[in-house]
Write a structure and sequence with these properties.
Strand content: under 5%
Oligomer: single chain
InterPro entries: Ribosomal_mL64 (IPR018472), Ribosomal_mL64_sf (IPR043035)
Subcellular location: Mitochondrion; Nucleus
Distance between the termini: 171 Å
Family: Belongs to the mitochondrion-specific ribosomal protein mL64 family.
Pfam family, one: CR6_interact
Shape: elongated
Organism: Alosa alosa (allis shad)
Helix content: 55-70%
């Protein structure tokens, strides 16, 4: 059973291959000419390849790029006078010529200009290098003084921080002595106490300054009188 089914399938497959080969195989007609059942007939080429192709600019189907002056130059360069193009129309206008000259000057400078540009760049680099070396030399000359100033500022900052800590500890101790307990430096009561102490210290400084001025005036008056008496005698 299986063998018979396999045999029928093989026969059908062989027949299909034979039919496909026979359909596209060449045949010889009665006149002896070799023919193909399936053949391709290309359309005839409309252009004459023996003559130059000159596009019709009046035709709407002609591409825009074939109507430009650039394409006309290409045609004239390829076919010459056979292109039917007047060479005088291919020259740039005065405006275009000025633009071309300006572009050449910008992107294609002369050898003299290039050498001048190189010399100017070398001089600019040399000036920058000299200025940088001068600045480095000036900073190196200032380095000892800068280091000394830094050390002095660091020392003063440490001393100031130490004095502030000592003042804070003194104020905290005084607050503990006044109120009998440790206080928070951020509390309003502690801040009011600091203001009172500053007012008292300010009064003391003013009093000491006034006493010193009075003592200086008292010491200076007898000497001035003695000097005037000696001059009168």
């Amino acid at each position: 059973m299986a063998a018979s089914v396999l045999g029928r399938r093989t026969a059908l497959f062989t027949e299909a291959i034979y039919f496909s080969l026979n359909a596209f195989a060449p045949r010889i007609c009665s006149c002896g000419v070799l023919q193909h059942i399936a053949s391709y007939h290309a359309k005839p080429f409309k252009r004459n390849l023996n003559e130059p192709y000159i596009p019709d600019k009046q035709n709407e189907k002609t591409p825009v790029w074939q109507k430009t002056a650039k394409y006309d130059r290409k045609l004239f360069g390829r076919y010459g006078s056979a292109s039917g193009i007047n060479p005088a129309t291919l020259w740039p206008s005065p405006k275009q010529l000025d633009e071309i000259i300006a572009e050449e000057k910008q992107w294609h400078p002369s050898l003299e200009e290039m050498l001048q540009n190189v010399s100017a760049k070398d001089k600019e680099l040399a000036d920058k290098r000299a200025a940088r070396e001068k600045l480095i030399a000036a900073n190196m000359a200032k380095m000892p003084q800068m280091v000394a100033n830094w050390r002095r500022e660091t020392r003063e900052a440490k001393e100031k921080k130490k004095e502030e800590k000592a003042k804070r500890d003194r104020l905290l101790a005084e607050a503990r002595e006044r109120f009998g307990y440790a206080m928070d430096p951020r509390s309003p009561k502690f801040q009011d106490m600091i203001k009172d102490i500053e007012k008292e210290e300010k009064k003391k400084r003013k009093l000491l300054k006034r006493r010193k001025r009075e003592e200086e005036q008292g010491l200076g008056t007898p000497g001035a009188e003695g000097a005037s008496g000696t001059a009168a005698s």
